[in-house]
Design brief:
heterodimer, A: 117 residues, 6-stranded mixed sheet, 4-stranded antiparallel sheet, 12 strands, globular, B: mainly beta, 7-stranded mixed sheet, 0% helix
Chain lengths: 117, 114
């Protein structure tokens, strides 16, 4: 079963508008972490934002915020005031914490965002 | 600060040849990860090291793949012999500690096996 689901293969947004990229996850571990990475066309993976399962507030990093709804098991990325440079692939990932092992990252399939002028 | 460094950035080789990918993690990071990215399978964890010791290699596809970390600042991923289905982007990532486990990725090596 998929542990990270990104249901939007592609999204379009007008420059300067806000956009929400969806991510749902599945885990029975009470302690976990959720990450968003950006992959522009150049190929590198850029860390954007992190949310811990015990964090009381939604994470924010500049124009990025994470809409964390624990009961719904969703961790949507919100990008405010979109810029042309935001056009990229976006990956949601979850830290999996098997007992006695390191916390592996499980990645979703990604959402390709296109920002139009 | 320098990020994760990978070399080569691009590699084209013929089926049956040995391929060696190299990675230098961020200084001070004690975890190192090797990932493979393909269109069909997305991002997959191949193997990771903690303090130079391989911890989990369950993602390594087969015996043709091997990875080493002889010291804290260098790791290799070797494919011998290479096959066309190994064509992918291979990423190396490192992280500081188990508590703050954000992984920082290198630029990747784009491998094409003909």
């Amino acid at each position: 079963a998929q542990k990270i689901t990104q249901t939007q293969p592609g999204m379009f947004v007008q420059e300067k508008e806000a956009v929400t990229l969806d991510c749902t996850y599945d885990t029975s571990d009470p302690s976990y972490g959720l990450f968003w990475y950006k992959q522009p066309s150049s190929g590198e993976m850029i860390f954007l934002i992190y949310q811990g399962s015990y964090d009381q507030q939604n994470a924010t990093e500049g124009r990025y915020s994470l809409n964390f709804q624990k009961a719904r098991k969703s961790a949507n990325l919100v990008i405010s005031a979109s810029q042309l440079g935001d056009s990229a692939m976006y990956f949601c990932a979850m830290r999996e914490a098997p007992s006695g092992g390191y916390n592996k990252l499980i990645f979703g399939a990604g959402t390709r965002l296109a920002v139009h002028p | 600060d320098a990020g994760v460094i990978q070399s080569p950035r691009h590699e084209v080789t013929e089926m049956g040849q040995e391929v060696t990918l190299r990675c230098k993690p961020i200084s001070g990071h004690d975890y190192l990860f090797w990932y493979r990215q393909t269109m069909m399978r997305g991002l997959e964890l191949l193997i990771y090291f903690n303090n130079n010791v391989p911890i989990d290699d369950s993602g390594m596809p087969e015996d043709r793949f091997s990875a080493k970390m002889p010291n804290a600042s260098f790791s290799t991923l070797k494919i011998q012999p290479s096959e066309p289905r190994d064509s992918a982007v291979y990423f190396c990532a490192s992280s500081l500690s188990r508590e703050r486990e954000t992984q920082y990725f290198g630029p990747g090596t784009r491998l094409l096996v003909l």
